[in-house]
């Protein structure tokens, strides 16, 4: 009889623990959805500094976003978007950053290009951006909503994506 009571207590305790964990996971999923929606809204807005820089360059008649110089037009012809879940403004920023790095390299340095893109996006849009650059690679990634771009420049492929970051509860 006593064994049955102890077993019932253990089962009840386990059930309570499962219920507690289930509630926690549900709240975590809900927070992640809310965060993803707010991240999507944030990602579509360019930072204030960039907007001010664009306005200044527009006043001086320099090529920014809209009118591109010949070199930029030529470079843009080489770019092919393979897959994207990213706002066009962010895509253009990735292309522009890639071009700036390419222009400084006599020969392709995949790590350098990947690092430059990651740093640019981490700085501008928050942490957890990842970048893979190469001529041949496979991947299977999970990305945040609105944070995925896979493109090629000639025979070089670039995968840029963002993952969700959840703070650890101690």
Automatic annotation (TrEMBL):
Residues 35-46, 53-62 have a biased composition (Basic and acidic residues). GO terms for cellular component: cytoplasmic dynein complex; microtubule. Keywords: Cytoplasm, Cytoskeleton, Dynein, Microtubule, Motor protein. One of its GO terms (biological process) is microtubule-based process. It holds the Pfam family Dynein_light. The keyword Cytoplasm applies. InterPro entries: DLC_sf (IPR037177), Dynein_light_chain_typ-1/2 (IPR001372). Its main location: cytoplasm. Residues 35-71 are annotated as: Disordered. It is found in: Cytoplasm, Cytoskeleton. GO terms for molecular function: dynein intermediate chain binding. Belongs to the dynein light chain family. This is Dynein light chain.
């Amino acid at each position: 009889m006593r064994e049955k009571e102890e077993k019932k207590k253990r089962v009840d305790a386990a059930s309570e623990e499962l219920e507690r964990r289930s509630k926690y996971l549900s709240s975590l999923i809900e927070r992640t959805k809310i965060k993803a929606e707010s991240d999507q809204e944030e990602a579509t807005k360019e930072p204030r500094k960039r907007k001010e820089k664009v306005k200044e360059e527009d006043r001086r008649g320099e090529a920014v976003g809209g009118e591109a110089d010949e070199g930029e037009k030529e470079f843009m012809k080489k770019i092919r978007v393979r897959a994207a879940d990213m706002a066009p403004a962010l895509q253009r920023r990735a292309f522009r950053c890639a071009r700036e790095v390419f222009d400084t390299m006599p020969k392709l340095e995949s790590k350098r290009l990947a690092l430059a893109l990651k740093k640019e996006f981490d700085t501008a849009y928050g942490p957890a951006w990842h970048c893979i650059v190469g001529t041949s690679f496979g991947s299977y990634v999970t990305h945040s909503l609105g944070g995925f771009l896979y493109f090629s420049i000639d025979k070089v492929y670039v995968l840029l994506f963002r993952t969700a970051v959840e703070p650890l509860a101690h």
